[in-house]
Amino acid sequence: MHKFNKTSIGLDIGTHSVKVVELKREGDNIILNKFGIKNIPDSSGGGGDKAVFQLISQLFSENNIKGRNVNICVRGQFVFVRFVKLLQIKEGKLKQTMKFEAQNQIPFPLNEVAWDWALLDKNKAAKRAVIVAIKKNLVEEMVSRLKNIKLSAVSIDVSPMSLYNCMDFNEDYDEGRHGIILDIGAKATDLVIFNKGDIWIRSFPIAGERIAEVKEQGVEELISEVERSIEYYFMQGGEESQGQKLDKVILSGGGSMIENVQSRLAVKFNTEPKIIDPFRKLKISKDVLSNIDMDKDKARNQFAVAVGLALRGISEVKIEVDFLREIRSERYNSQQKSLYTRLSAVLVLLIVLSASIFMKQSYSIKRLKLDKIEEMLDIYKVYEPKIKEIKYTEDILKEKVNVLYQLAGSRAIWLDCFKIISEILPKEVWITDVSGIVSLEKSGLARLDLAGKALSYQSVNNFVSALKSSPTFKDVKPISSSIETDENTREEIVRFSITMDVVRSE
């Protein structure tokens, strides 16, 4: 039987506010014990500044939250996410298989990232899994800043998955239908598509600030991104997804309350959006009941991610990833290796000490001591082959590290390329295939090939012009272009391919 914690704290550090939720378990009931929100002044400059973490300290103090262990998350736009299909694999081989998949899917050496994985629908024979990764220095920075205000990170989740766990806990959906959750924040929107225990997530930078700036145009841009994401999701599903449609829209985040957002989504997807109530299935503590208007206070939908985080450790959650899991494992292995090294040093020291005593004793005493030393040497001989094996393994690992170190610089170039391409990519153009090659030499060749589809030749020309104007690319050449009929929509589209050199910084 799963052993749950008595209390759990979820801390959601957003762009414009920080939210905290403390849950308490009493028997089968989960109680909303405390919660609070604090807006971040514009001068604070974002969630990474010291001022924001001082606000977190004040938030804990003002709401009388004594716990020091917190579950936090990383926003979806900062996380590398991949979904993989798995063949039938024995339970004992699953971890090894996922590490192999991570090495193939993540465009960085695994020792440079914090990563984790989780199975999605565990009841299906053909399983799908999600792999998430983030630069390790970002995780270490978050942990360090929390430590400065005397908080300890128990787990680091991904915000869209915490949002999904909150929805799943509240049973706000029909398991057999397709639905989406939109968490519209200040600077980014997290989108989760769910169906039969399976999910697909995406984050994009159209959210509350953009809508507030350009009004109706911002709402249209948001809906366009949502529609594009849904189309891509169904396209990835192949024949099984033909004829499928969206049945449920669930909204979260402060941006969901902006005027016309809900009404435009309702018209577009022919379903009335539902504002998530993260407190719906929680028992409410008397101490906080007075702070919640269960009929009028729609702002509580901003606590969905924080509730999803607080459910970690106090209740079963549908998807559980933790960027600290692999770091903790590496730290434990390092401690074990360090302990073995210290024991070996102590053993050698004992041998030297015994030899010194032997020289100062009479022959008869020396004989007795020598017998004991020989016994110790026999023990040492048992471990000697293992020590040699470790040394041999260490030499091999050093050679691999040198190769990986050379590769690291070359592999990092692709992230910048993909970021620039995503910024200049017209809405009428989408990329279907990417390939590239980069030399290990510092000034060697780096080349990138793209293939994709577009609604018109003009869209392709605009995209090529944008690539040529970027200082990151040179010698941009269209290789081919042709008009063909899309199998799904029966509309004419342009299929194209482009090749270019990548300018590598010294």
Short description:
With 506 residues, the chain is an alpha+beta fold. The chain has helices spanning 50-62, 91-105, 136-148, 159-170, 208-214, 216-236, 261-269, 286-289, 304-310, 324-360, 363-424, 457-469; strands at 7-13, 17-26, 29-39, 69-74, 80-86, 113-119, 127-135, 152-158, 179-184, 189-195, 198-204, 248-252, 274-275, 283-284, 429-438, 446-454, 473-485, 492-502.
**What is the number of beta strands?**
18
- Give the low-confidence spans: none
What's the CATH architecture name of the largest domain?
A: 2-Layer Sandwich
Largest sheet: 5 strands, mixed
CATH class categorisation of the largest domain: Alpha Beta
The third-level CATH topology of the largest domain is Nucleotidyltransferase, domain 5
- Element order: H for helix, E for strand: EEEHEEHEEHEHEEEHHEHEEHHHHEEHEE
Structural class comes to alpha+beta
Task: Compute the number of helices.
Answer: 12
Q: What overall geometry do the principal axes of the alpha carbons give?
A: globular
Summarize the amount of helix as a percent range.
40-55%
Q: What is the strand arrangement across the widest sheet? A: 11-10-9-12-13
Radius of gyration: 28 Å
Report the CATH superfamily of the largest domain: ATPase, nucleotide binding domain
Distance between the termini: 57 Å
Count of discrete structural domains: 4
Overall pLDDT confidence: 83
**Approximately what portion of the residues adopt beta-strand conformation?**
25-35%
